[in-house]
Amino acid sequence: MSNPKAAIYWASSCGGCEIAMLELGMNLVDISKKVDIVFWPAALDFKYSDVEAMPNKSIDVSFFNGAIQTSENEHMAKLLREKSKILIAFGACAYGGGIPALANTTSREQIFTRVYKETPTTDNPDGIIPQTKSQVKEGELTIPEFYNTVRTLNQTVDVDYYVPGCPPVGEQVLAVMNTVVSGKLPPKGSVIGASDKSLCDECKRVKGERKIKKIMRTYQVLPDTEKCLLDQGVICMGPATRGGCGAQCLDANMPCRGCYGPVPGVLDQGAKMLSALASNFDSENEEEIQKIAEGVVDPIGTFYRYGLARSLLRRAKA
Amino acid sequence: METHMEFSYYPGCSLEGMNKAYDKSARLVSKTLGIDLTELNDWNCCGASAYMSIQELRAHLLSARNLAIAEREKKDLVVVCPACLTTLTKSNHYMGEDLKLRRTIASALKAANLQYLGTVKVRHLLEVVVNEIGEQEIKTKVTRPLTSLKVAPYYGCQFTRPFGEFDDKEFPVMLDTLLKWLGAEPVNFPLKAKCCGGMLMTTNEPVGLGLVRSLLDCATQNGAECIATICPLCHITLEAYQGNVNKKFATSFEVPTLYFTQLMGLAFGFSRKELGINEELISSKAVLARRVEAV
Amino acid sequence: MIDLKSDFEPKIVGFLCRWCAYTGADLAGTSRIKYPPNVTPIRVMCSGRVDPVLVMKALASGADGVLIAGCHPGDCHYTNGNVKTIRRFRVLQKMLDQFGIERDRVRLEWVSASEGEKYARVVESMTENLRTLGPLNWNGKKEVSS
Amino acid sequence: MAEKIGVYVCHCGTNIAQTVDCKSVVDYASGLPNVTVAREYQYMCSDPGQELIKKDIKELGLTRVVVASCSPLMHEPTFRRAVEEAGLNQFLFQMANIREQCSWITENKEMATERAKSIVGAAVKRVEFQEPLDVKKVPVNPNVLIVGGGITGIEAALQIADSGKKVYLVEKEPTIGGYMAQFDKTFPTLDCAACILTPKMVSVGQHPNIELLSYSDVTGFSGYVGNFTARIRRRAKYVEEEKCSGCGLCTEKCPVSVPSEFDCGLGKRKAIYRPFPQAVPNVPVIDRDRCLYFTKGVCKVCQKFCPRGAINFEQKETYADLQVGAAILATGFDLFDASKVKQYGYGRLPNVITSLEFERFSHASGPTGGKILLKNGQMPSNIAILHCIGSRDTNFNEYCSRVCCMYSMKIAHLAHEKTGARVYEFYIDLRAFGKGYEEFYKRILEEETIFIRGKAAEVTDVAQTSAERGKLIVVAEDTLLGIVRRIPVDMVVLSVGLEPRKDTTEIARIFSISRSQDGFFLERHPKLAPVSTASDGIFIAGACQGPKDIPDSVAQGAAAAANALSLIDRKEVTLEPTVAFIDEKSCSGCKICIGLCPYNAISFDESKEVSVVNDALCKGCGTCVAACPSGAIGQRNFTDDQLLAEVEAICA
Question: Is the ipTM of this complex over 0.85?
Answer without folding.
Answer: no
